[in-house]
């Protein structure tokens, strides 16, 4: 009887090989589950990024309409602290012309232009390019004491006055954790902590010559390297590009997928493509 019980006990126990097989199966199941979860999370982040891109497009449309149905929001501007200063160079002149379209000539009668906010202690002129320029147009004058964007005053003589109750904008509700200091002004990061690139059609040639510190060119249809006769995507509006979850822009220039998974451009999204740039046109 004792011998029979010992035999049953040995037969009911797991052998080392059986345990290893079970552990291996569990490991495979865990890895498959993790891959599935990561895929779902990745898809959710992409949907959120696309939603944010659409919200920015809507804000640009609202700003253009509120600014008197202007053709676009410049992505290269130069701000001076006196009206006379704007006549110093081509970008300053084009900025002055746009400000006059939006606010009228009255702003030029004021000796001091506090475009960077009443508590700004830095120097002028200030050059804003790309997303810095877009944050300026959508957010307006920043009240650095409150840490918020105040839009622009509706009073034509002082559009930079943050105390006036009648406002133009702000046109976008910036999340505090997505506003960071850029090169010269505040810029906006995307929901993955990556960057945005913004190119207005009127400045494509400017960015072609000065490509945002080498980060990304405006996307165009002709082969790389870019040439003067390039045919751009969204040639009459703007390009808004969001870096993917790797937080890195692709090289820009010629947009012709498919790309290899892992390349910097593969997960970028843009307002001129319904898909990720590395997936298809």
Helices and strands, in N-to-C order? HHEHEHEEEEEEEHEE
Q: Strand order of the main beta sheet, please? A: 9-10-11
Low-confidence stretches: 37-41
What count of helical segments does DSSP give?
Answer: 5
Helix percent reads 25-40%
Q: For the record, give the distance between the C-alpha atoms at the N and C termini, rounded to a whole number.
A: 78 Å
Q: Roughly what fraction of the amino acids lie in strands?
A: 5-15%
What class do helices, strands and sheet pairing give? Answer: alpha+beta
- Overall mean confidence score, pLDDT: 81
Largest sheet: 3 strands, antiparallel
Output the radius of gyration: 27 Å
Number of strands: 11
Number of domains: 2
Form type = elongated
Written description of the protein model:
With 281 residues, the protein is α+β, with helices and mostly antiparallel strands. It folds into two domains: 45-191, no CATH class; 192-281, no CATH class. 32% of the residues lie in helices and 12% in strands. It has five helices and eleven strands. It has helices at 2-12, 16-66, 90-103, 131-139, 204-209, and strands at 76-79, 126-129, 142-143, 148-149, 152-153, 167-168, 179-181, 186-188, 196-200, 238-242, 269-270. The chain has a three-stranded antiparallel sheet. Strand 3 (142-143) and strand 4 form a beta hairpin. The model is unreliable at 37-41 (pLDDT under 50).
């Amino acid at each position: 009887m004792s011998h029979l019980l010992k035999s049953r006990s040995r037969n009911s126990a797991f052998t080392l090989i059986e345990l290893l097989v079970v552990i291996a199966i569990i490991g495979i199941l865990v890895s498959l589950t993790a891959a599935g979860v990561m895929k779902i999370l990745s898809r959710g982040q992409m949907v959120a990024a696309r939603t944010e891109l659409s919200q920015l497009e809507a804000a640009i449309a609202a700003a253009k309409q509120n600014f008197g149905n202007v053709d676009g929001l410049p992505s290269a501007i130069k701000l001076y602290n006196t009206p006379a200063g704007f006549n110093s160079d081509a970008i300053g002149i084009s900025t002055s012309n746009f400000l006059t379209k939006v606010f009228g000539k009255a702003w030029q009668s004021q000796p001091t232009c506090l475009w960077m906010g009443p508590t700004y202690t830095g120097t002028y002129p200030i050059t804003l390019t790309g997303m810095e320029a877009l944050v300026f147009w959508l957010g307006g004058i920043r009240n650095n004491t409150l840490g918020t964007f105040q839009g622009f005053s509706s009073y034509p003589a002082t559009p930079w006055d943050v105390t006036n109750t009648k406002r133009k904008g702000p046109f976008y509700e910036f999340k505090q954790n997505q506003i960071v200091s850029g090169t010269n002004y505040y810029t906006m990061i995307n929901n993955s902590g990556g960057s945005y690139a913004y190119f207005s059609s009127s400045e494509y040639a400017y960015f072609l010559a000065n490509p945002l510190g080498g980060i990304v060119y405006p996307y165009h249809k002709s082969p790389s390297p870019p040439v003067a006769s390039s045919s751009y995507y969204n040639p009459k509006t703007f390009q808004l590009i969001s870096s993917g979850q790797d937080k890195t822009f692709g090289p820009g220039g010629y947009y012709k997928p498919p790309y290899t998974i892992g390349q910097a451009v593969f997960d970028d999204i843009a307002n001129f493509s319904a898909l990720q740039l590395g997936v298809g046109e």
